[in-house]
TrEMBL record:
It comes from Streptomyces chryseus. Keywords: ATP-binding, Nucleotide-binding, Transport. This is ABC transporter ATP-binding protein. The keyword ATP-binding applies. GO terms for molecular function: ATP binding.
Length: 353
């Protein structure tokens, strides 16, 4: 991948990241017969203070990538660097120190909060592992401050998750993610389980918190429309890899990868005239199994532009040769042998209300 031209230093760098889950046969003598290649060669950078949106269809490896980034799982191969230090193989105290700085917010606020714990205990639980952040006597006050920061009444500290709405529960999940004062938050579809009217409020809260605490976000979603408002850059994932990545205007207004163009053409457009004139790109066929990834370009079985070369040669994630001397927004990383611009009805960047 071409090194991104950004002034700010990367707080997180990912190179050649893989997570393969073995497929085994047999009960007593287990034999590996293949592997689910959930994450299959991801490269990305996250700059301090920026939001990187990651989008892709169900099963493309988004949650696996998230778990790798926060060290909930170890990669099969590849490197994750935090502030220049390789953290991939850390263990013990060194790992604990790094994990404090990279926290996760989960998708489903209904299942990710323990129903038998009070909100105070849920938000304060990370202090049991990191007592240095909040000595016992200070914890109640810290948790109440966090409730206030995420827009909940500090007096709710003794309530249980079932006493809150979905949006409020996600606020509790965010407060918990903030408890250790991390620098990076990996949010795995944080609004997907919420009503549309509540999604905007939670996205706006994340935006506000980013400004307040200088956070860097990896914000995962399956829909391009959700990440537009919050992302500085967007990466599009397909079958375990990023196939196109760039600044948000580059991806939304000048996509060059057929998969991104198809995803964009499926996003709901509020303006009826624009809706009437837009071309829907319908992808044929199902997403192939990550245990059986097509040769060459992994998107070729669903791509309307596929040619012979696409089956033989893996396209690299780089600025395509046709745009290399170009200063236009089309000159961003796209893993396609035949990358070209295609007009897709633009998605309004307006503020979320
Ligand atoms: N622990 C595991 N063991 C085996 N396969 C797994 C495991 N975790 C995930 N997978 C497989 O890896 C692939 C990617 O899964 P992942 O949950 O990362 O996708 P996703 O993009 O988050 O999907 P969704 O949008 O549905 O949340 C899927 O085929 C999934 O079945
Ligand atoms: S490399 Fe070929 S199959 Fe892959 S996206 Fe480009 S045109 Fe389609
Ligand atoms: Mg997921």
């Amino acid at each position: 991948m071409a090194e991104p031209a950004r002034q700010t230093e990367a707080i997180l760098e990912v190179r050649g990241l893989h997570k393969h889950y073995p497929l085994t046969q047999g009960i007593v003598f287990k034999k590996q017969v293949g592997a689910v290649r959930a994450v299959d060669g991801v490269d990305l950078d996250l700059a301090a203070g920026e939001t990187l949106g990651i989008v892709g269809e169900s099963g493309c490896g988004k949650s696996t990538l998230a778990r790798l980034l926060v060290h909930l799982e170890r990669p099969t191969a590849g490197v994750i660097r935090y502030k220049g230090e390789d953290i991939t193989k850390l263990s013990g105290r060194a790992l604990k120190a790094v994990r404090r700085n990279i926290q996760m917010v989960f998708q489903d606020p209904y299942t990710s909060l323990n129903p038998r714990m009070t909100v105070g205990d849920i938000i304060g639980e990370p202090y049991e592992i990191h007592p240095e952040v909040a000595p016992k006597g200070d914890r109640r006050q810290k948790v109440q401050d966090l409730l206030d920061v995420v827009g909940l009444n500090p007096e709710y500290i003794n309530r249980y998750p079932h006493q809150f709405s979905g949006g409020q529960r996600q606020r509790i999940g965010i407060a918990r993610g903030l408890a250790l004062q991390p620098e990076i938050i990996v949010a795995d579809e944080p609004v997907s389980a919420l009503d549309v009217s509540v999604q905007a409020q939670v996205v706006n809260l994340l935006d506000k918190l980013q400004n307040e605490f200088g956070l860097s976000y990896v914000f995962i979603a399956h829909d391009l429309s959700i990440v537009r408002h919050i992302s500085d850059r967007v990466g599009v994932m397909y079958l375990g890899r990023i196939v196109e990545i760039g600044k948000d205007a580059e991806i939304y207004d000048h996509p060059t990868h057929p998969y991104t163009q198809a995803l964009l053409s499926a996003v709901p457009v509020p303006d009826p005239t624009a809706r009437e004139h837009r071309e829907r790109i319908l992808l044929t066929g199902d997403v192939p199994s990550p245990a059986n990834i097509p040769s060459g370009c992994r998107f070729r079985t669903r791509c309307w532009k596929a040619r012979q070369r696409c089956a033989q040669e893996v396209p690299l994630l780089a600025v395509p040769a046709v745009f290399r001397d170009d200063r236009s927004p089309a000159a961003h990383d796209s893993a396609c042998h035949f990358a070209e611009e295609k007009h897709v009805v633009p998605l309004e960047p307006g503020p979320v209300t």
